[in-house]
Amino acid sequence: MKQLIIKNFDKINIGIITQKEDGTLVVKGETPEFERELKEIVDKITSKPVFIGWGRTEEREGKKIDVDGERICKKGDPKYLNAIRDILWNYSIGGKRVYGIISEK
């Protein structure tokens, strides 16, 4: 089971998003206010397709070229929490910007 640990830039724990084996997400906040805000953000993010970026270096005609792209992640995809983590950088909870750390449980 994968977890996305959400913290603000003061290193204070905000909450945890757990992805179960069937792909469902369980959102828990450190306080009721954090949990409410985190659930609103997760509902907003997951209401539309979630994309994850990728990049690689390819050699074409003897030159190295960086190629970037993105693909849709669906619930149950092993990279789904990674995609949510990348989107969370755009949000604030409790008036502070947040980030996520992926861990295996």
Describe the structure in your own words:
The structure is a single chain. The protein has 105 residues and is α+β, with helices and mostly antiparallel strands. The chain has helices at residues 32-46, 80-88, and strands spanning 2-8, 13-19, 25-29, 50-60, 63-73, 92-93, 96-104. The strands form two sheets. A five-stranded antiparallel β-sheet has the order 3-2-1-7-6. A two-stranded antiparallel ribbon has the order 4-5. Helix content is 23%, strand content 50%. It is built from two helices and seven strands. β2 (13-19) and β3 (25-29) form a beta hairpin. It has one domain.
* Poorly predicted segments: none
**Number of self-contained structural domains:** 1
Radius of gyration: 16 Å
Q: Could you give the distance between the termini?
A: 5 Å
Order of helices and strands: EEEHEEHEE
Spatial sequence of strands, sheet with the most strands: 3-2-1-7-6
Mean pLDDT score: 89
Query: Largest beta sheet, briefly?
Result: 5 strands, antiparallel
The overall strand count is 7
User: What overall form do the CA principal axes indicate?
Assistant: elongated
The proportion of residues in beta strands is over 45%
The residue fraction in helices comes out at 10-25%
From the helix content, strand content and strand pairing, which structural class follows?
alpha+beta
Q: Tally the helices: what do you get?
A: 2
